[in-house]
Write a structure and sequence with these properties.
- About 40% of the residues lie in helices and about 15% in strands.
- By secondary structure, it is an alpha/beta fold.
- The chain has two domains: about 5-185 and about 395-400, Glycogen Phosphorylase B (Rossmann fold, 3-Layer(aba) Sandwich); about 195-390, 3-Layer(aba) Sandwich (Rossmann fold).
- The strands form three sheets. A seven-stranded parallel β-sheet has the order 5-4-3-6-7-8-9, with helices on both faces. The chain has a seven-stranded mixed β-sheet with strand order 12-11-10-13-14-16-15, sandwiched between helices. A two-stranded antiparallel ribbon has the order 1-2.
- Helix 2 crosses helix 3, helix 9 packs across helix 14 and helix 12 packs across helix 15.
- The longest helix is centred in the first third of the chain and has 21 residues, at about 75-95.
- The mean pLDDT is about 90.
Length: about 400
């Protein structure tokens, strides 16, 4: 049974829950925090601790606590800011008598543990930690996971695959790890997806349209999608690809688009406050990631009723689209699964227009062509998507966080 009240000096008070995240805009983890504050009852006092002010915050239902300690570009500055955050967070926990503190992403996880007071403490792991870093940084992060994260009451893994990674590569006690999937605000998405697109965007959607959403970074693998899409255009000349998001690879992706002669077919339209109206109007959604924690955007696309194609990356997509299969399953061809299509994961390395198309890109292109041409399969996967996403509803997921 969920206990949301505590007895202090004979007086019954609300339980205080704090979420720690650098900002409340821009990414999947940030959206999860916003969603959790809306999904958890107001019988709890909810705080969201951020590092600095940001524009376009996600809609939330919590009290914002701004530490006003921004980022730094040099190593000494980063270390100094981390120490300042630890001190500031400890003061916050004591002042507001926090009962439960939950952190998201690497730096918040570290400062959460190192600022521990009397609260129950949880760190959330969003990605395959073994794939995120290289060299000295990887060794340092491995030490942090083993020695710092392990001091939390529980490590919350976003998927079965992330849990397996923590056990196999960081030797974390399996009993220490709890799996809690991301919640999806299905009701909110259902409303937002109905918003009318601007006229300049409506023109794109008059053609067969594919969409992807995510930061323009190495992890997300958008260059593979663009290269695969070139082969789609060879078979369906009026096909369009919309890419939502911003990031460090934007310049390289623009160059690739131009070099492949796709400037009239591929549209980089940046961060959108309401991505759901774009996803909803597309014929299919593609996730070309090299690795993920879960792939929350797949669930959001499902809530829009948009058929899914995803790489079979570690981890998440297989758990969502093919839940009856094992995580050890590997594929080298496109596979139509219960709730979507999986294609072989890319082997990495940023490829430009001069490189030959790799087999994984060929499989992805064939999957896109298949779904664009097969109306029956597309409708079938659309209906199944809407059914599957209910397993990740607010009600189902929020209660798991409160039961910790």
């Amino acid at each position: 049974m969920i206990q949301n009240l505590k007895l202090v000096g004979g007086e019954t008070l609300k339980e205080n829950i704090a979420f720690i995240i650098p900002a409340l805009t821009g990414g999947g983890a940030e959206r999860v925090v916003a969603n959790l504050t809306k999904g958890i009852s107001d019988d709890y006092e909810k705080y969201i601790v951020i590092y600095h002010d940001t524009e376009n915050m996600y809609e939330h239902n919590g009290n914002i606590i701004n530490l006003n300690i921004g980022s730094s570009n040099n190593l000494i500055g980063k270390a100094f800011n981390t120490i300042r955050r630890i001190i500031a967070l400890k003061k916050f926990k004591n002042k507001y008598k926090i009962d439960k503190c939950i952190s998201f992403l690497d730096n918040p996880n570290t400062i959460n543990v190192l600022s521990r007071s009397n609260e129950r403490l949880f760190v959330s792991i969003r990605n395959h930690q073994s794939k995120e870093f290289n060299g000295i940084t990887k060794k340092l992060h491995t030490l942090i996971v083993k020695k710092v994260y392990a001091k939390a009451n529980k490590i919350i893994a976003i998927s079965q695959g992330v849990k397996l990674d923590l056990i196999e590569n960081f030797h974390i006690d399996p009993k220490k790890i709890e799996i809690i999937y991301n919640p999806v605000d299905i009701e909110r998405i259902s409303k937002l997806r109905e918003e009318v697109l601007e006229e300049r965007h409506q023109t794109i959607y008059k053609n067969p349209t594919i969409i992807t959403v995510g930061r323009l970074t190495y992890q997300k693998g958008q260059w593979h999608l663009i290269r695969a899409f070139k082969k789609v255009v060879e078979k369906i000349p009026n096909a369009q690809l919309i890419i939502l998001g911003t990031g460090s690879l934007e310049k390289e992706l623009k160059t690739l688009i131009n070099d492949l002669g796709l400037s009239k077919n591929v549209h980089l339209i940046g961060f959108q406050e309401n991505p759901f109206k774009f996803i909803y109007n597309a014929d299919l959604f593609v996730l070309p990631s090299l690795f993920e924690g879960l792939g929350n955007v797949i669930l959001e696309a499902m809530a829009c009723g948009t058929p899914i194609i995803s790489t079979d990356c570690k981890s998440g997509p297989r758990e969502i689209l093919a839940p009856s299969t094992t995580l050890k399953t590997e594929i080298d061809k496109l596979t139509i699964e219960e709730y979507g299509i999986l294609t072989p994961v890319f082997k990495g390395g940023i490829l430009d227009s001069k490189h030959q198309v790799v087999p994984e890109e060929t499989e992805l292109s064939e999957a896109m062509v298949l779904l664009l041409k097969d109306d029956k399969l597309r409708d079938e996967l659309k209906n199944k998507s809407i059914k599957r996403v209910n397993d990740f509803s607010f009600k189902n997921i929020s209660e798991k966080w409160l039961d910790l």
